[in-house]
Write a structure and sequence with these properties.
single chain; alpha+beta; five-stranded mixed β-sheet; 60% helix
C-alpha cells in the first residue's frame, strides 16, 4: 500500500523536528559542560587566590574547615615538596603534575604552599538536567511538527485529490469538469495541466466527430451512386449502350471509395510502431521525373498546363523513395483538382520540393490549418472540388515520419504552394 502525501509530510516533519532537537541538545550538553567546567575552575582559582592573599602561605584551622564544608580539600605542600592531606586529594595533585588543571574528575588549583582540590561533579547533575530538558523539548517539538505536518499535508493533498477526481472523471468520458487551480504554484500547475489536457481532449474529440461526419458523408455519396446504378443494372432498367456509361460510373465511384479507405488506413498506420520506412540514399531527380510523366498526362486530360523544374545535377538524400512519391502524388492530386483548365500546376525540385498551382488559393487562416484533418474539406466542400478530407493530413504525417517538414503558402502562379523539406539536403 502506498502512503498518502499527508502521511509522508507528517513523517518528514517529525523526523526533521526530532533530529533538530537531538542535535541541539547534544550541542547544548557539550557547551554547558564546558562552561560549567570553566566556571568551576575560575571559582576555585579565585578562592585559592583569596586564601593565599588573606591567610598566608598555608591555610589552617577555621579556613580549612570552611573549605571542607564547601567540599574543597586542602593539600599542604612542604618546603621539601612533600604533600600532606586527604589521600584522594593528594593523588589528584600528583596526577595533575602539581599544576593547576582538571584531571580524573578533579579540579586542582596549586599555589606556593598549598593546593585546593574539588570534585568535578557538575557534569553528571548538569547532564541529567539537560537530558530532561531535551526530552521535554523533543516531545513538544514532535507534537508541534506532527500538527504542522498534518495541516500542511492536508493543504497540499486536498487540491491534488480534487485534481485526481477530475482526471478520473475524464477517463470515464466527462469533459465538462475542471480542476480548481489553487494552492502552491506546483499544485496549481498540475491542476492547470489537467485542465489543459481536458480542453485539448474536448477539441480533439470535437474534430474527430466532425471528421467522422465528413467521412460518413463522403462514403455515403459514392455508395449511393454504386447502389443505385447497380440496382438499375440488376433490374434491367439500363440496357444497351447505356450499360457502358453506368459501368464506368460505378467504376469511378468504387475507385473513389477505395482511395478514401486507403487514405484512412495510411493515416491510421502513421501512428503505429510497425509503420515501415525503407530509408536509403535516393536521387530525387528520377523520382520527380517519374511523377511528372504521370501527372503531365493527367493534367493534359483535364486541360491543365503542367510545368516541371528540376536541376541537372543529382539531388541525393537519405529517404524512402516510395513515401516521397506518395507525398508528391497527394500534393499533385490536390493541385490538379482545384486548378481550372488553362492554368498551370508546377512540380519543382531544388533546395526543396514544391508543388504550386494556379487555382483559387487559400486564405492566410487556411494556410495555418491546411494540414488539419478535414479542415479544408469542411470549409470548401460546397464551393470547390474537394478530395477525401484526409489527403493533406496524410501528406503531413508522411513527411513528419520521414523527418522533414512541410508548409503551405501562396504561390506566384496565383494559387497555393506546398513546400516539403527533407533532412540531408532537401
Amino acid at each position: 500500500m502506498r502512503s498518502s502525501l499527508a502521511f509522508r509530510i507528517t513523517a518528514l516533519c517529525l523526523a526533521v523536528a526530532g533530529i533538530a532537537v537531538v542535535v541541539a541538545g547534544l550541542v547544548s550538553v557539550r557547551l554547558v559542560v564546558n562552561t560549567a567546567r570553566e566556571v568551576s575552575r575560575t571559582a576555585l582559582a579565585n578562592q585559592a587566590d583569596t586564601v593565599a592573599d588573606q591567610i598566608g602561605e598555608t591555610p589552617r584551622g577555621r579556613v580549612v574547615a570552611v573549605l571542607q564544608g564547601q567540599k574543597i580539600s586542602v593539600v599542604r605542600i612542604g618546603a621539601n615538596g612533600v604533600l600532606r592531606g586527604d589521600a584522594t586529594a593528594v593523588r589528584a595533585v600528583r596526577d595533575a603534575g602539581r599544576t593547576s588543571g582538571v584531571t580524573g574528575g578533579w579540579i586542582v588549583e596549586v599555589r606556593d604552599r598549598f593546593a585546593l582540590v574539588q570534585e568535578a561533579d557538575y557534569g553528571t547533575s548538569t547532564t541529567r538536567k539537560l537530558v530532561r530538558n531535551i526530552a521535554l523539548a523533543l516531545g513538544l517539538g514532535l507534537l508541534i511538527a506532527g500538527v504542522a505536518g498534518l495541516v500542511l499535508g492536508n493543504l497540499l493533498s486536498r487540491p491534488l485529490r480534487r485534481t485526481a477526481g477530475v482526471a478520473l472523471a475524464m477517463s470515464s468520458g466527462r469533459r465538462d469538469l475542471r480542476a480548481p487551480e489553487h494552492g502552491p504554484t506546483e499544485v496549481a500547475e498540475v491542476a492547470g495541466a489537467v485542465n489543459g489536457l481536458a480542453d485539448a481532449l474536448q477539441r480533439s474529440e470535437s474534430r474527430q466527430r466532425e471528421f467522422l461526419l465528413s467521412v460518413s458523408h463522403e462514403l455515403r455519396t459514392p455508395l449511393t451512386a454504386v447502389i443505385g446504378f447497380s440496382e438499375s443494372l440488376a433490374d434491367g432498367v439500363v440496357t444497351g449502350p447505356d450499360v457502358v456509361a453506368v459501368g464506368r460510373t460505378i467504376q469511378e465511384e468504387s475507385r473513389r471509395l477505395d482511395r478514401l479507405v486507403s487514405d484512412l488506413l495510411d493515416l491510421a498506420r502513421l501512428g503505429a510502431d510497425d509503420f515501415r520506412l525503407d530509408v536509403t540514399p535516393v536521387d530525387l531527380v528520377p523520382v520527380v521525373r517519374a511523377a511528372a510523366d504521370v501527372w503531365r498526362a493527367r493534367c493534359a486530360a483535364k486541360g491543365v498546363l503542367f510545368s516541371l523544374e528540376v536541376p541537372d545535377a543529382p539531388v541525393v538524400v537519405p529517404t524512402d523513395a516510395r513515401r516521397v512519391r506518395q507525398v508528391m502524388d497527394g500534393l499533385l492530386e490536390n493541385a490538379v483538382r482545384v486548378t481550372p483548365a488553362g492554368r498551370v500546376v508546377v512540380l519543382s525540385l531544388g533546395s526543396v520540393v514544391q508543388v504550386r498551382d494556379g487555382g483559387p488559393g487559400l486564405s492566410e487562416e487556411d494556410y495555418a490549418i491546411a494540414f488539419d484533418r478535414g479542415a479544408l474539406h469542411a470549409k470548401y466542400s460546397t464551393t470547390r472540388p474537394v478530395g477525401t478530407g484526409v489527403g493533406l493530413a496524410l501528406v503531413h504525417g508522411l513527411v513528419t515520419r520521414l523527418g522533414g517538414t512541410i508548409s503551405a503558402g501562396p504561390a506566384p502562379e496565383g494559387g497555393a504552394c506546398f513546400t516539403m523539406t527533407l533532412p540531408g539536403g532537401v
